[in-house]
Amino acid sequence: MNEKITNLAALILVSAAVSATAGDGLLNFPGTEYPLTLQFSAQRAQEEGVFETPLSAAPEEAYNTLLIQGKMPAGLVLEVLVKSQARPGDFESVPLVASKRFRSDRFWAKYRLERRARHQVKLRAVNRGSGNRLVIYEVKLVKKEEPEWSDKTAPPEIYVPGPEPLKFPFKITLREDWHAAAPGHAFIADTPRLATLHHTAGNYPADYKEAAEEIGFIQDYHQSGEDIDIGYHFLISPQGDIFEGRPLGTLGAHSSKRNTGNVGISVMGNYQKESAARPVTPEALAAIAAIGKYLRENYAVSISSFYGHRDINQTLCPGAVLYSKMPEIKNLISPPAAPVTWTPVAPGPTPFFLPAPAEIHFN
Questions:
Q1: What's the CA gap between 357 and 87, in Å, rounded?
Q2: Which DSSP letter does residue 177 get?
Q3: I need a surface site. Which of 83, 192, 194, 298 has the fewest CB within 10 A?
Q4: Is residue 22 classed as helix, strand or coil in its secondary structure?
Q5: Residues sharing a CB contact under 8 Å with residue 293, sequence separation 6 or more, in sequence order
Q6: Any idea which fold 5-142 has?
């Protein structure tokens, strides 16, 4: 068979190049931005072909595991290639060690090298004749971090839920209601002291049903791909639906080395650039504010302790568009006091004084 090879860069739909920072842990493909979106023509969808990304920039740190997630129809196969050390100019395939594809075409895949290295990477999508659209939300380089409590003498306190579930003053879909899987590890007890806003940088759900499916995907991706339970405490759909992630009062896994006391709030979707099809909705902003007010009133999380992810880690998260809403969000959480105004009173008539009586002296 004579395979046709096309450079994916010419087919990715992008408007500007935005590089991921080292703090994102994302692999940067020069001249492209996430999400990488490949749309095959109707004619090409019936042909078998191979489509490749540009070669990535060299990672800043060594890695041995890559995690990829996105949307891929059944007719496509995704391969990861790295530059060969034995044969300069050639590429070697990285073994796929685990993957899962959902009915919604959401997928994640884990690839692992034999040893840690700073290999440049390119992706190869093989079209088997029925797929026509591939979306890659992220290619993440995984490096295991030491737990935040590892340098402390006292062991961490295991989280034990109270006899009654927390009562929230807003509508929320709890873990049992979206059928969360059991956590792979015990949760660590933690007390909220600050909050951090994220975006999932993934799928933008069209409705509640899609949002419920998306949170299930995110948990599975975090558990299977990164060996943690879902990293955020709250997730919000574009329609303003609030979902419980990991229980409030447990240590999060959403901000590198800054999780202690930190409540993770994440909005579903990618908000790095303006999109009429994927806007930051008033409903999502209202949901963020509702959570922020609850944290301020019940855990004394002050408005000065409400951050965007990029404020505390080297990252593009929560996306430039959502981050630009931070002043508005803070005003919704804690409206500024109304300024005291002074209205001058119009002067009255000039007062009239009788002259003082003349002094009379008697000899």
A1: 119
A2: T
A3: 298
A4: helix
A5: 169, 333, 334
A6: Jelly Rolls (2.60.120)
Q: Which of 127, 72, 79 is closest to 105 using CA atoms? A: 72
Going by CATH, does the domain composed of 194-333 fall within 1.10.600.10?
A: no
Q: How confident is the model at residue 21 (pLDDT cuts 50, 70, 90)?
A: very low
Question: Would you state the structure tokens that stand for residue 41, as one six-digit string?
Answer: 């023509």
Provide the CB-side half-sphere exposure for 161 (13 A, CA): 8
Residue with the larger pLDDT of the pair 48 and 144: 144
H or E element, residue 289? helix 282-299
**Pick from 74, 71, 90: nearest CA to 82:** 90
Q: How far apart are CA 306 and CA 194, in angstroms?
A: 6
Q: What is the dihedral of CA 239, 244, 248, 252, to 10 degrees?
A: -90
CA distance 137 to 211: 16
Please state at what angle helix 282-299 crosses helix 326-333, rounded to 10 degrees.
Answer: 50
Distances (CA, A) of 124 to 79, 84, 248, 271, 303: 5, 15, 41, 26, 46
Predicted pLDDT of residue 88 = 78
Neighbours of 333 (CB within 10 A): 21
| Dihedral sign (CA 314, 315, 317, 322) | positive
Distance set, CA 110 to CA 31, 123, 312 (Å):
24, 13, 28
Q: What percent of the chain has pLDDT over 70?
A: 80
The ranges of the chain annotated as CATH 3.40.80.10 are 194-333
- Among 27-41, 263-277, 302-316, the least confident range: 27-41
Q: pLDDT band at residue 162, thresholds of 50, 70 and 90?
A: confident
